[in-house]
Fold this sequence. Notes:
Chain A is an alpha/beta fold. Chain A is built from six helices and 15 strands. Helix content of chain A is 27%, strand content 31%. In chain B, strand 15, helix 8 (289-292) and strand 16 (295-298) form a beta-alpha-beta unit. Chain B has a seven-stranded parallel beta sheet, with helices on both faces. Chain B has a five-stranded parallel beta sheet with strand order 13-12-14-15-16. In chain B, strands 6-7-8 form a three-stranded antiparallel beta sheet, with no helix packed on it. The mean pLDDT of chain B is 94. At the A-B interface, helix 3, helix 4, strand 9, strand 10 and strand 11 of A face helix 4, strand 5, strand 7, strand 8 and strand 11 of B.
Amino acid sequence: MPNIIACCKWVIDEAYIRKGPAGALDFSTVDYKISDYDRNAIEEAVCLKGLHGGSVTVLTAGAPEAAKGVKDALSRGAEQAFFAGDPSFNQLESSQTAAILGEIIRSRIPYDLVICGEGSSDQYAQQVGPRLAENLGIPCISYVQKLTIGEDGRILAERRVEEGVEVVEAPLPVLVTVLPEINTPRIPGVRDTLTASKKPVVAIKKEELPPVGAARLQTMGMTATRMERNCEKFAATPEEVARFVGALQKLGVIS
Amino acid sequence: MPGVWIFAERNDLALELLTVAGGLASQTGVKVTAIVPDQGDQADRCIAGGADEIVLLSPLGEDMSLAAWIPVIAAEAKGADPDILLIAATARGKDFAARLAARLDTGLCSNCTALHREGDGTIVMERLAYGGTAVDRVSCSTRPVMATIPPRTFAPAPADTGRSGEIRKLPLPPSTPVRVIARKTKDRSSQDITEAKTVICVGRGMEKEEDINIARQLAELVGGEVGCTRPISEELHWLPDDLCIGLSGVQVKPDLYVGLGVSGQIQHVTGIRGVRVICAVNKDENAPIFQAADLGIIGDLREVMPRLIEELKKATGR
């Protein structure tokens, strides 16, 4: 019966970021969410537990406000959580996140399988999973769209690669990163949210961990992406559609 | 030893990386090393494309994964200490790069879309963040500076057949616990949409799977290919994954893009940034796609499409 760890990240919901003048980004009205593909990671862990038994632990590191995300993750079917919260853990870089998660797993959580989303909704650097596998010294299988645990305790995974699918197998323990295609994450109900608040959360203080190294990448500046387009609008009437086609011809994109 | 290294699992991508590597290396007068699989005339083509040294990876056994090379390349990089290491951002390449960066304890700029050297020698790399809402400019304080570069970000390096270079071969690495037991090549959906001159994109605003035929009809009329947004391939499975356009799908750069019932979420819009003319048809006049489009028709697809097809037939004489 596998002990499964699902890693997740509490991120800014990009839909609430407003673009200010001169390429500025306005974060003043943002809301937060569990990173999209981490929901698939948690769902996959919970589904595998449904099939094989075992346990599902969610693990996250972030600012203290990420406690909300821990509760959200628990409402999705995990039975316990480990949470390293500290103001300095806001906006961690991939190498730092992997180091913190690796330390917590090695020292505190027995596991057979670690599941991460393929990338986070905010940075989408797609590094924490592979870096964490290296940190733990276990094999990494990334971009997985189908996952099975065999009778023999081996894992069978379909990875999506450019030319198609690569089917791989490996003995546990293993780390996988999952694609959104792998499942449809459940939407927690009221009861799930209520039970989530009763589930155990192991809080880990920064002081209990070895010092976190410096970020390997430094952000020098962030600006809003610009899309300078004409934004010309047409109605659905026959005359307007004809004018639209005329405009396409003038631009030389139809012939 | 200073130098710029590239690693790509395919020759066409190696040539794209050589365009960037060549530019960076010439600024400081260092050599370019290309690490590539030993296939056909790969080495000669990389030398013609600007590489000074070729490190060939012997063909792996059928059941071995590309990741088997990670410890070998890590040892090579630790020994030679290059300044910069660029890796083609295929699925396997991105996985490879992140694990290599962990072993070298250095920073990695993922999906880097632009990079240049500042006056003080700092390499500044650009990447998208927040689903494509923002451009993040980063630098790396450790060696080597690493970046993964998405396919088709740069043009392939032109061939100069007069160049020469050194070639050496790495011995096969030991096998890893991960065994590849099958490789399935997907049926390419007629044509690669990344190569198409016109792309007709199907979005969630399409009500029925049969409605995709309208998109196909339009594509046929203007000589284009059909693509889709993430919900169409991922949730509804109406079209295959390789037709999904966006941040986590493919990026397209055709002359003309027409979004049918596409709402215009930032992740999708990020995949069409390089299109010359963006058009959209959507019944919701507040759909974000209209902010990202050059020309937009506000209206119901069922009403607009017959008229659009009729007018296009008139205009193109088909």
